[in-house]
């Protein structure tokens, strides 16, 4: 298929393109407008139906509120609330009064009054009413002492649905509940309320007036409906999405399928209005209409779209033929001119290709030479950097040696000071030892004198006889002590002499150590001066090596930059050569295309 299209003449393709260009945008715009119009139309219809459903819910709510007021009016009638005052009125007259009220309201088919036991004491004309006391609404009215509205109930006797409204009767004199009045509304009377009168609607809402209406009770079942067979059915069984919209308890619309008709319908839901002062009915309203009927106007819109697109396509086709003829002639002239120019360009490009190839060869040779120079420069830079590292290590070692010498010198100075301090201490010890020797000699002399005194005392005691015997004993003891003191003094003198000899030896050794420390300090100072000179020399070597390394690196970087530039030039030359080759090829292709274009046109 695509192959056949490629073989078509350019004139035919131009006509087809012009038709598509004129038709497709119109078609797209029409489809967009159609979709937008359909969406707006459906939203407007949904809004109109929701408005009708809300109006119907409000209408039903107001109607029931009025009925709620009716029963309270009946409960306050004097014939019921003030029996003492109306005791003269006969039962027939009371019945006539109830009949008159029922006819005035026109919505009830029965009104009945029962006492608190549930016994019927008064009713409107008709079949006798009994069993009121058994009804839930009757019990609720007595229990709450307020009016109540029953849910729609199906009568077991006739199968019809009724709504009951009951209100307690309070005696105005005793303020006691004396009975209950109840009214009965056939749900058929609500049918007229629920029916939609199109004449009262606006133009935008009349399209939704044909919808089927439904009233749903608290049990979820229909008790009023357009199709009578739906009454009593569960709304959830007929509309699958009823539970979904009911849960929202607000006005809403949804497309659903009626399970009875099997037709797709637009369902609009609204709760019956809750009016203040009236119990919550818990009723709801549903309006349903087939989407086929509701959206019938969309087909007319689609038909108009197709008709407009067809007319546009015809006009575009006529204009396309005219413009295609003019365009093909112009293209033929241009194709001839392109073919001539392509031949001239091809010759020029071929000459430029040869020149660029020669330039690329020269640049490639220069790049190779610069790469060799770059390698040499990098090697020199590496050697210079290695020399710098060695000089740096030597400088660090020299600095560490200098620091060690200074530390040794400091230690020797400290040692000298400590040796001098020891010498001073030894001298003071020698002096103190001499003093001890003097004291010990003095003690020896005292011991000798004491011994002589003790000897004399013993002689004198012997002369004294018995009286001097005790003194002689004391003198003997003193002599013994004197002998011991003399011996101790001699030992101390011996020890002091030994200490003196040791101290003298120590003094000599200390003097010799001090001299050796002085000689070591002189040698260490000389070594420190030598290390300082070595460090200065190594530092100069390090600075020179660093400068050489930096210069070598800069030279290597410069060579690399030159190599990069040459590579860029070389790449540019190769790209230029490749580009010229491509231009040459493109020129040939352009020439061939011009020939093909002339053939196609």
From TrEMBL:
CDD domains: MCP_signal, PDC1_DGC_like
InterPro entries (UniProt xref): Chemotax_Me-accpt_rcpt, MCPsignal_dom, Sensor-like_sf
Transmembrane segments: 14-35, 301-324
MF term (GO), any: transmembrane signaling receptor activity
Compositional bias ranges of the Low complexity kind: 356-387
CC per GO annotation: membrane
Xref: SMART domains: MA (SM00283)
Record flagged with keyword Transmembrane: yes
Pfam families cross-referenced by the UniProt entry: MCPsignal
Family: Belongs to the methyl-accepting chemotaxis (MCP) protein family.
Protein name (record): Chemotaxis protein
Organism for this UniProt entry: Aliterella atlantica CENA595
């Amino acid at each position: 298929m695509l192959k056949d299209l490629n073989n078509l003449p350019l004139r035919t393709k131009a006509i087809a393109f012009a038709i598509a260009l004129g038709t497709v945008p119109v078609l797209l715009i029409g489809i967009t407008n159609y979709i937008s119009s359909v969406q707006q139309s459906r939203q407007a219809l949904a809004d109109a139906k929701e408005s009708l459903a809300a109006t119907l819910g409000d209408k039903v709510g107001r109607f029931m509120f009025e009925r709620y007021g009716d029963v309270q009016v009946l409960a306050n009638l004097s014939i019921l609330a003030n029996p003492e005052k109306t005791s003269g009125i006969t039962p027939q007259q009371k019945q006539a009064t109830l009949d008159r009220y029922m006819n005035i309201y026109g919505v009830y088919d029965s009104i009945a009054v029962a006492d608190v036991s549930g016994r019927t004491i008064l009713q409107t004309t008709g079949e006798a009413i009994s069993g009121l006391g058994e009804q839930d609404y009757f019990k609720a009215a007595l229990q709450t002492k307020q009016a109540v509205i029953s849910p729609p109930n199906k009568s077991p006797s006739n199968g019809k649905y009724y709504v009951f409204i009951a209100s307690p009767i309070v005696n105005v004199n005793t303020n006691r509940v004396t009975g209950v009045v109840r009214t009965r509304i056939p749900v058929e009377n609500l049918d007229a309320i629920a029916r939609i009168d199109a004449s009262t609607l606006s133009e935008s809402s009349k399209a939704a007036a044909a919808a089927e209406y439904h009233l749903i009770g608290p049990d979820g079942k229909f008790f009023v409906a357009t199709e009578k067979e739906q009454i009593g059915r569960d709304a959830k069984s007929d509309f699958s999405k009823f539970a979904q919209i009911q849960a929202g308890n607000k006005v809403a619309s949804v497309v659903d399928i009626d399970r009875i008709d099997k037709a797709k319908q637009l369902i609009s839901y609204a709760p019956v209005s809750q009016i203040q002062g009236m119990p919550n009915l818990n009723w709801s309203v549903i309006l349903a209409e087939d989407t086929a009927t509701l959206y019938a106007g969309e087909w007319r819109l689609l038909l108009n779209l197709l008709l407009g697109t067809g007319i546009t396509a015809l006009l575009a086709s006529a204009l396309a033929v005219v413009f295609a003829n003019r365009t093909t002639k112009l293209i033929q002239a241009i194709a001839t001119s392109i073919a001539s120019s392509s031949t001239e360009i091809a010759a020029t490009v071929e000459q430029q290709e040869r020149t660029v190839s020669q330039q690329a060869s020269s640049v490639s040779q220069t790049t190779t030479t610069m790469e060799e120079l770059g390698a040499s420069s990098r090697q020199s830079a590496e050697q210079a950097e290695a020399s710098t590292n060695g000089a740096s290590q030597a400088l660090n070692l020299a600095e560490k040696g200098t620091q060690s010498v200074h530390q040794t010198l400091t230690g020797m100075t400290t040692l000298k000071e400590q040796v001098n301090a020891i010498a001073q201490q030894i001298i003071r010890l020698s002096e103190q030892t001499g003093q001890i020797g003097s004291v010990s000699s003095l003690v020896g002399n005292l011991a000798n004198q004491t011994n002589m005194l003790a000897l004399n005392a013993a002689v004198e005691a012997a002369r004294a006889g018995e009286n001097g015997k005790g003194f002689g004993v004391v003198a003997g003891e003193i002599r013994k002590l004197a002998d011991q003191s003399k011996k101790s003094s001699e030992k101390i003198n011996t020890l002091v002499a030994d200490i003196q000899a040791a101290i003298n030896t120590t003094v000599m050794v200390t003097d010799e150590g001090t001299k050796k420390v002085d000689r070591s300090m002189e040698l260490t100072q000389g070594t420190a001066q030598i290390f300082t000179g070595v460090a200065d020399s190594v530092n100069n070597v390090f600075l020179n090596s660093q400068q050489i390394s930096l210069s070598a690196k800069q030279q290597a970087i410069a060579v690399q930059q030159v190599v990069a530039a040459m590579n860029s030039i070389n790449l540019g030359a190769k790209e230029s050569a490749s580009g010229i080759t491509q231009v040459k090829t493109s020129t040939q292709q352009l020439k061939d295309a011009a020939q093909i274009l002339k053939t196609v046109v």
